[in-house]
Amino acid sequence: MKTIVRLLAALLVGVGLGLVYGWLVQPVHYVDTAPGNLRADYRADYVLMVAQAYASSQDLQTAQVRLASLGPQPAAELVTQALTYAVDHGFSRYDLDTLNLLAIALREAAPTAEIQSP
Amino acid sequence: MKGGLLLLAALGLGIAAGLYYAWGVNPVSYTDTSPASLRDDFRADYLTLVASAYDAGGDLQRARARVALFAYADPGPVLAALAQQRLAQGWPEAEARALARLAADLQAASPSTPGAQASTPTPAGSATPTRTVTPVPSPAPTRTPTSTPGAPFRLLEREPVCDETIGRPLLQVEVVDAAGQPVPGSEVRVVWDTGQDHFFTGLKPDLGVGYADFEMSPGLTYTVQLVDSDQPVTGLTPGECTTADGTRYAGSWLLRFQQPER
Which of A117, B14, B133, B199 could be cross-linked to A15 through a Cys-Cys bond (beta carbons 3.0 to 4.6 Å apart)? Predict the structure, then answer.
């Protein structure tokens, strides 16, 4: 019985050492990340840059391609999220308007789902 | 003795299990990464986006802060090289031009140059996009002074260059505005018997933001024209130069264009 307890204790200590080493000392190192993994502030700034470029070029397709790098969510949703972040974190009115214009353009461009009544 | 071995075995098994869990089952999750960790192609896209946003808004201070995320010691040449690379890969010219402009402006402006004003916090508004946008004054652009739109550039100087240090014959182009300031982002077309190409000023900011060059091949005759000029420069062939010890080598041409005062 005593031996089993010792073995279990040793096993647990080993697991603990493994976790410490794997999570803290030598964690998995990601160097080739995608924009979709960016922190919220960087994501918001990314969307803002897309909106700034769109405001000048009016090229909605390029804006949509750029936003697609952030993940599978609809582009309009990504811009709305960025807009929410921008409002919460005190972005300038100019930035908010820039984001707003892109959001409007994306919503207008989105195909509207029509529900047909039988 | 046997008990000690068993303990060691259990410890080793535990470590292996812990590592398997930490590395395989539930590794540290990098969901909040910074742009610096982006894969090379995403990084190029990100920097291009920074340049496009700068080209649109002219906020150099903000562009510099965004580029600083990548911790380049000297971002100008990096951006210039990226501009050339993307141009060669067939990306839109506007992107290459924006990268070249940002490279040139970062190179030209010292870090202490006052850029655009810092963003002013605004009262919280609605996060829902609305159709009515309150008109607000646009921030003052801080873009580097460039040419006056519409005024065609004129050839100011056409000069043969014999410089052994260049190493190969070049078509060197310098573009300045009416005030004599170098103009980055000017498109230059070069045509020869069997082909044509184009390049932009400002892609080599270390040689001047209004500078561009193109390598000539022996035996070919070139015509050079600024896109913003109605004056082609014809009959350009690698010149004949001689070193002090009598060795002959192919020389270059330097073409200076300036926008006339209106």
Answer: B14
